[in-house]
Specification:
The chain has 469 residues and is of the alpha/beta class. 32% of the residues lie in helices and 25% in strands. It binds 1,4-dihydronicotinamide adenine dinucleotide.
Length: 469
């Protein structure tokens, strides 16, 4: 190709796309980032991670003011919910962060193009702007970072008012009396927690016999116990057979996943949170012959190149954990490889965090995976009841669990249910990346009093020598 407008045209301005754009610009490439939304940041910033965490924090404070402060000798009376103010604060957090991302791209010299991108052929992206005008961008390389959308359940038509996905559940105008959540994954538990704290009676229907599939089972069970104590109800090994929505509410007919007679559930609002699927419609990929796997994810090689040379893809639309930070790492690895450097993302070392309270965080292999692979391992566990900082805060639910190779002591997996688990897990990620042994963590000095000492103690426990239990 002799003449191009840009070295790289990125389609999608979420964590995968905008971070790839920034890094590519740092590496000296001319970059355009195309997104339908004017507010960059994609699902994560606009209708995902950021607004959900804002509501989680606000609802935590509401619950704390009602039930938690008295134990600290702080008396408050007449605690009231102002849902409109809570939502407005969430919207403000989203708007400010979205503007921040726009500012970052501008500063880096990335051209932001608002509109729907379609790959018209090798090195050519057509953009249809919201005002129906269009523009063609000639690109040396094209990066698809269009993310994912909620998986729909057959027979359930989402109106984002009565039957909602996470998008609608982040913007309900009043607290539903009864909320049924279908799916006990990250979205179901986080948004179920929000509305339960704000006063809804929440029932989570899960097709499997356990919550949080993919997480370490022991940690998942412990999390379920804590969430149940907080008021969430669980109907496990249960599926939804039919749904009838009317002006008076929604009736769901449930039945045991294994078959047999079920029971009805009444709800004012139903949240469908049964996973997400790649969002690549309208990109022209079928015409170009871009290959997909059997689940619809775009197939990429080690350089994140699809089956069509010059077209790359990262994030939720390619295989691996569907997480913002995984997309970011892949975006960086992809453009660094384009610039002649080396980039790689090990999916086994991508941390996963569920922002319930306490938080649930994990990296590496679970006990179940190690058992299935016949890998000999040793386990070290330490409960937060024995951690002084957790006692100080009055947040003693949960534990740290470290799985280490039986022969080499190398850390294979770390699973945490507890206060600030989402931050604590960072130490475990670094340990895994550096090939640390449990003893390496155990011999590292951890500040006292801090919740991080629970990680050190769990590492000591791998060798049967925890000190504070
Ligand atoms: P998920 O895959 O985490 O969980 C979906 C749950 O629904 C599973 O437990 C599954 O067994 C269940 N399920 C599937 N079909 C069902 C049916 N017919 N009836 C009842 N249960 C059924 O998906 P989720 O929670 O929708 O989240 C989507 C994606 O977004 C995930 O990849 C998740 O990791 C990511 N996410 C991550 C967050 C975080 O990192 N904090 C927060 C929110 C989402």
């Amino acid at each position: 190709m002799t003449e191009v407008d840009f070295d790289l045209v990125v389609i999608g301005g979420g964590p995968g796309g905008y971070v790839a754009s920034l890094r590519a610009a740092q590496l000296g490439m001319s970059v355009a980032c195309v997104d339908l939304r004017e507010s960059l940041g994609g699902t994560c910033l606009n209708v995902g991670c950021i607004p959900s965490k804002a509501l989680l924090r606000s609802s935590e404070l509401f619950a704390e003011a009602q039930h938690g402060l008295a134990a600290h000798g702080v008396k408050v009376g007449g605690v009231e919910l102002d849902l409109a103010a809570m939502m407005a604060r969430k919207d403000d957090v989203v708007a400010k962060l979205g503007a921040g991302v726009g500012g970052l791209l501008k500063k880096a010299g990335v051209r932001q193009v608002v509109g729907k991108g379609r790959i018209a052929g090798a090195g050519l992206v057509d953009v249809e702007r919201p005002d129906a005008t269009s523009e063609s961008l000639r690109a040396r390389h094209i990066l698809i970072a269009t993310g994912s959308e909620p998986t729909r359940l057959p027979g359930l038509s989402v109106d984002e008012k009565q039957i909602v996905t996470s998008t609608g559940a982040l913007a309900l105008e009043r607290v539903p009396e009864r909320l049924v959540v279908i799916g006990a994954g990250a979205i179901g538990l986080e948004l179920g927690s929000v509305w339960s704290r704000l006063g809804a009676e929440v029932t989570v229907v899960e097709i499997l016999d356990h919550i949080l599939p993919g997480m370490d089972r022991e940690i998942g069970k412990a999390a379920q116990r804590v969430l149940r104590k907080q008021g969430l109800r669980f109907e496990l090994a249960t599926k939804v057979a039919s749904v009838e929505a009317g002006p008076a509410g929604v009736t769901l007919q449930t039945e045991p996943a294994a078959g047999g007679a079920g029971k009805p559930l009444e709800a004012e609002v139903v949240l469908v949170a049964v996973g997400r699927r790649p969002f690549t419609e309208g990109l022209g990929l079928e015409e170009l012959g871009v290959a997909r796997d059997e689940r619809g994810f775009l197939q990429v090689d080690g350089a994140y190149q699809t089956s069509v040379p010059g077209i790359f893809a990262v994030g939720d639309c390619v295989p691996g954990p569907m997480l913002a930070h995984k997309a970011e790492e892949e975006g960086v690895a992809c453009v660094e490889t384009l610039a002649g450097q080396r980039g790689h993302v090990d999916h086994d070392r991508v941390p996963s965090v569920v922002y319930t309270w306490p938080e649930i965080a994990s990296v590496g292999r679970t006990q179940e995976q190690l058992e299935a692979d016949g890998i000999e391992f040793r386990t070290g566990k330490f409960p937060f009841t024995a951690n002084s900082r957790a006692r100080i805060s009055g947040e003693t639910d949960g534990m740290v669990k470290i799985l280490a190779d039986a022969a080499s002591d190398r850390v294979l997996g770390v699973h945490i249910l507890g206060p600030l688990a989402g931050d604590l897990i960072a130490e475990a990620v670094v340990a895994l990346e550096f090939g640390a042994s449990a003893e390496d963590i155990a011999r590292s000095c951890h500040a006292h009093p801090s919740v991080s000492e629970a990680l050190k103690e769990a590492a000591l426990a791998v060798d049967g020598r925890a000190l504070h239990i």
